Amino acid sequence: MAPALLLVPAALASFILAFGTGVEFVRFTSLRPLLGGIPESGGPDARQGWLAALQDQSILVPLAWDLGLLLLFVGQHSLMATETVKAWMSRYFGVLQRSLYVACTALALQLVMRYWEPVPRGPVLWEARAEPWATWVPLLCFVLHVISWLLIFSILLVFDYAELMGLKQVYYHVLGLGEPLALKSPRALRLFSHLRHPVCIELLTVLWVVPTLGTDRLLLALLLTLYLGLAHGLDQQDLRYLRAQLQRKLHLLSRPQDGEAE
Predict the structure, then answer these.
(1) Which keywords label this protein (predicted)?
(2) Nearest-CA neighbor of 198 among 228, 173, 222?
(3) What is the DSSP string of the chain?
């Protein structure tokens, strides 16, 4: 039992790292663009056109750096999700395979956020500058971001957050209950094989719905949109299963608790 219990701190450390990274990701994708965390540069000629930007090294160099960071994250997230790598990690790390995947993903995302190079002098696709849009557009974006993040957290609960983070696998192993996926229904396993990112629409809203869509934000939104789109393969059967699971969990949450006062 002692060696098995040593797995618990490792899984908890991975969970804490992932949770902290998630909080930082909310700040990076929502709070910074909505609250104006990046100061604007220069005067009326500070922003360049798209053609001029392609010849400006001060724009191309940080964009190339940001692209490299995104490709590093996408490569790690995709490579470690392949069956070959998962089998290798399971052979050498056992039940910690999922926790290791989560920790590496969190570290890769931390690199993206900490070393991201903004491009304040680059061209913008859109920008709310004139009133009343300069007031109402950021407010609308803020409301949509709050709704999207609430939906993301709700969907993660439906998808068994403990299992997604690798905690449930270690818990079952310590108690000798086997692999959690072995207890899943064939419909659930089919869904998991088709869906790696259960919060696609909500994340797309967070990425694109911003008051100012600058050059580096456009790069971030485009690449992650492409990646999220390629990672999905849902069909009507998967959607029916998702709807049934959501209704079942909502029913459990709305059911009166035992011993509740009359």
Answers:
(1) Membrane, Transmembrane, Transmembrane helix
(2) 228
(3) -HHHHTHHHHHHHHHHHHHHHHHHHHIIIIIHHHHT-S---SSTT-SPPHHHHTT-HHHHHHHHHHHHHHHHHHHHHHHTTSHHHHHHHHHHHGGGHHHHHHHHHHHHHHHHHHS----TTS-EEEE--STTHHHHHHHHHHHHHHHHHHHHHHHHHHT-HHHHTTHHHHHHHHHT---GGGGS-HHHHHHHHHBS-TTHHHHHHHHH--SEEEHHHHHHHHHHHHHHHHTB---HHHHHHHHHHHHHHHHHHHSPPTT---
Q: Does the predicted model carry a pTM greater than 0.90?
A: no
Tokens of 43: 């005067």
